[in-house]
Structure prediction request, 268 residues.
Amino acid sequence: MYAIADPWIPPTRGLLSGMPMLLLAFLGVLTATAGALAAGEIVPLAPARAVGAGGAQGALLATAVEWAGGERRRAAPLMATILVFVGAVGATLSPFGVIAYLAAPVWLLMQRHRFPPFGLKRPPIGICAAGAAVGALLGAHLLLTASLTLGYGVRVPTAAHLMSWLAYDAGANVLTTEAFFRGALLDRAQRRWPFAMASALVALLCLARYFVDPLLPHSLEVMAGAVFYLTLLSLANCWMYWRSGSIVPGIAAGVAFFACYRLLHVVS
Prediction:
C-alpha cells in the first residue's frame, strides 16, 4: 500500500551531482601549487607531500560527507578537509604528530548519526571481523608472492614506524577511500544500476585512486600486482558494504591489508 500511495521515483540528478565544487577547486589549486613548488625545489618535498596528500584525501572525505549529510550539514565538507589536513601536517611536524590522523575518524564517530550512509552507528561485528580477516588474508598472500617473485622481502618495522603507518591508514588513507568510494559513490551507484555494475565501476575508480597516490610505489611489477590485490580488496569491500550498509568492515579490511603491505621492503 505504501508503494502505491508513495511510489518510488527514479533519481533525476547525476551520479556526481551535489559535489562541493568551490572547496574542491580550492583544494585542486592548493595541491597543484604544492607540487609545482616542490618540483622547482622552492619548498622541501615533505611539506609539499603533506599538502598534496591532505588536499587529495580531504577532497574525497569532503565529497563523501557532503553526499552523506546533504543539506543538514553544510559546514561538514570544510570541517572534514581541515581535519584531514591537521593529520597530514601534524605527521610532518613531529613523529608523535601522527596521532593527529585520528582527528577525522573521531569526528566522524561523534557525528555518526548525521551521516547514515556511512553506517557508523551500529556496525555489524561479524562482518567487521570478516573484513579484517579478508584484508589480512590478501595481505599475507601479497607478502608471500612478493617475497618470492618481485625481489622484495619481509621486514618487521619498529613499533613507532608501524604505528605511524597504521594511524595514517586508519585516519586518512583507508578512511577517506572507504567513505567516498563505498559510503558515498557506491551508495549512489547501487540505487541506479545493478550491484555488479555499480561495484565494478567503483572498483575501477578506486584502483585509479591508488595508482595516482604518490605515497605508493609505481614500479611496473608492483603496479601489476596491485591490480590483482586492490581489485579483490575493493570488490570485497563493495560486497561487505552492500550486505552491512556500513563502511566499517571495509575500513577493517583495508587497514589489515595495508598493515601487511607495510612489511615489504626492497631486497638490496
Observations:
- The beta strands are 152-154, 264-266.
